[in-house]
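A.,

Following up on our hallway conversation. C-alpha cells first:
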C-alpha cells in the first residue's frame, strides 16, 4: 500500500498518524533529538529490536496482555524513564497493542508532569482505535480504565508488516472495531471492503506476503477508521459533547459482558461485536434502527465468525451481567448511555435504569428473547 499520513488537532495538541507497510526506518526520525525510552511487551519486543538503533535505546519490557494494564506497570515505566535519564524534554515511545499504548501514554502524561509521547501501534485494534485520540490509562479495582488521562501522542506509526505475527483472535478483535466504525459512520465503501476482505481474513493468509488486493483492502480499512475516529475526536476531544460518545457504539453492552465474563477472558473486540448486535436490538425496539440496517449489521458481524447469540456463553449469570451494566452508570450520573445504529449513522440515548418499560426490553435482549 502507499503511505498515508493524517494530521489531527486534538485540543491544543497536533497529532500525526503515519500508516505504511514497514516498521519505522532511520529516515522516519522516530526518536527526534530527545532522550528516549521505548515501552513494549514480551510479544512486541522483537519488533522494537528491529527499529533503528533498536538494541541501543533503553527499553522497558512489560508482561503481555490486559492483566498487565496496572499501576505496577505504570510505575515500572516511570522507574525505567528515570533510570534512563529522561528529563522534562524526554520522549516515551509505546510500541505494542492498546495495553502498551495506553500504559506508555499515561506514564508520559505524568512523568515529570508530562513528556513527549510517540506510539508504534502493532495490533489491528490499536491501529484503528486505541492509539488514536489521546485516551490513556490503566485498570484498577477490577474496573477497566478506571484511572487515566487525555494525552494525545505527537506521532503514531502504524506499520502493517507488524501485523504478520498477530494471532487470529487479535485480528478478530480489531475487525470488530473496524465494523463498528463503518456502521457508525454509515460508510458504504468501508462495508463493501469489509466484505471483500473477509475471505482472505478467514483463510488466514495475511502473512507478510499476503495478496495485494487484501493488503489494499486492509490499508484502506485502517486508513478510513483512523480518519473517521480522528475527525470525530477533533470535534469533541474530551468527550464532553455528543460526538465522541458515538465511537462507543456497542460498548455499554460489550463492557458489561467483558466485566461479567471476567477481565481478559474475552477480547475487547469480541465483546464489542456482541454489543453492537444488542445495540441493534435496542435501537430496533425503540424505533431508531431500521430492520434492514439491523439485518445487514448482524450479517456482517456473523460473517466474521463472532459469537452473536444472547445470552453470551461466557457471560456468567444474568445478575452478574446486570450488576456490571449498573456499574457502568456510575460514570454517567446514574443514567445508562447507549449508542444505537440509526439512519445510516448512530444516535446516543440516555435512559433512566428505573424505567420499567426499558428494564423489560433490556432483560429480553440479554435473555435472547428479543428478535428483530
Ligand atoms: N485509548 C483508547 O482510546 C482505547 C481504545 C480501544 C481500546 N483501548 C484499550 O486497548 C486494549 C486492547 O488493545 P489490544 O487488543 O491491542 O490489546 P493488547 O495490547 O493486549 O494486544 C493483544 C495481544 O497481542 C499481542 N501483540 C501485540 N502486537 C503484536 C504483534 N505485532 N504480533 C504478535 N502479538 C502482538 C500483545 O502482546 C497481546 O498479547 C484494552 O486495554 C483497551 O482498553 C484503548
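Then the amino acids I'd put at each of the 372 positions:
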Amino acid at each position: 500500500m502507499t503511505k498515508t499520513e493524517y494530521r489531527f488537532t486534538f485540543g491544543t495538541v497536533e497529532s500525526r498518524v503515519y500508516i505504511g507497510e514497514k516498521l519505522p526506518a532511520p529516515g522516519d526520525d522516530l526518536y527526534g533529538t530527545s532522550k528516549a525510552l521505548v515501552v513494549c511487551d514480551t510479544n512486541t519486543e522483537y519488533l522494537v529490536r528491529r527499529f533503528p538503533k533498536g538494541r541501543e535505546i533503553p527499553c522497558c519490557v512489560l508482561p503481555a496482555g490486559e492483566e498487565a494494564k496496572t499501576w505496577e506497570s505504570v510505575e515500572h515505566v516511570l522507574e525505567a524513564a528515570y533510570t534512563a535519564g529522561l528529563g522534562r524534554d524526554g520522549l516515551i515511545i509505546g510500541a505494542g497493542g492498546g495495553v502498551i499504548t495506553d500504559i506508555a501514554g499515561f506514564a508520559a502524561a505524568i512523568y515529570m508532569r508530562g513528556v513527549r509521547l510517540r506510539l508504534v501501534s502493532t495490533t489491528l485494534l490499536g491501529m484503528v482505535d486505541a492509539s488514536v485520540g489521546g485516551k490513556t490509562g490503566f485498570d484498577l479495582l477490577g474496573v477497566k480504565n478506571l484511572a487515566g488521562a487525555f494525552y494525545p501522542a505527537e506521532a503514531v506509526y502504524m506499520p502493517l508488516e507488524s501485523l504478520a505475527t498477530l494471532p487470529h483472535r487479535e485480528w478478530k478483535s480489531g475487525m470488530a472495531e473496524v465494523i463498528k466504525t463503518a456502521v457508525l459512520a454509515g460508510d458504504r465503501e468501508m462495508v463493501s471492503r469489509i466484505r471483500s476482505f473477509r475471505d482472505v481474513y478467514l483463510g488466514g493468509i495475511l502473512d507478510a506476503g499476503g495478496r495485494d488486493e487484501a493488503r489494499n483492502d486492509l490499508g484502506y480499512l485502517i486508513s478510513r477508521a483512523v480518519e473517521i475516529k480522528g475527525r470525530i475526536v477533533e470535534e469533541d476531544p474530551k468527550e464532553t459533547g455528543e460526538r465522541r460518545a458515538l465511537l462507543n457504539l456497542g460498548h455499554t453492552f460489550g463492557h458489561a459482558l467483558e466485566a461479567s465474563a471476567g477481565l481478559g477472558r474475552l477480547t475487547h473486540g469480541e465483546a464489542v461485536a456482541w454489543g453492537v448486535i444488542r445495540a441493534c436490538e435496542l435501537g430496533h425496539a425503540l424505533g431508531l434502527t431500521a430492520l434492514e440496517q439491523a439485518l445487514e449489521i448482524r450479517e456482517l458481524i456473523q460473517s466474521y465468525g463472532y459469537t452473536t447469540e444472547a445470552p453470551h456463553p461466557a457471560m456468567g449469570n444474568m445478575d452478574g451481567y446486570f450488576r456490571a451494566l449498573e456499574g457502568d452508570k456510575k460514570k454517567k450520573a446514574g443514567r445508562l448511555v447507549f449508542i444505537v445504529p440509526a439512519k445510516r449513522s448512530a444516535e446516543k440515548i440516555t435512559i433512566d435504569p428505573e424505567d420499567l418499560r426499558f428494564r423489560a426490553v433490556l432483560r429480553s435482549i440479554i435473555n435472547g428473547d428479543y428478535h428483530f
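Residues 249-367 form a domain with the Dehydroquinate synthase-like, alpha domain fold (CATH 1.20.1090.10). Curious whether your intuition agrees with the design.

B.
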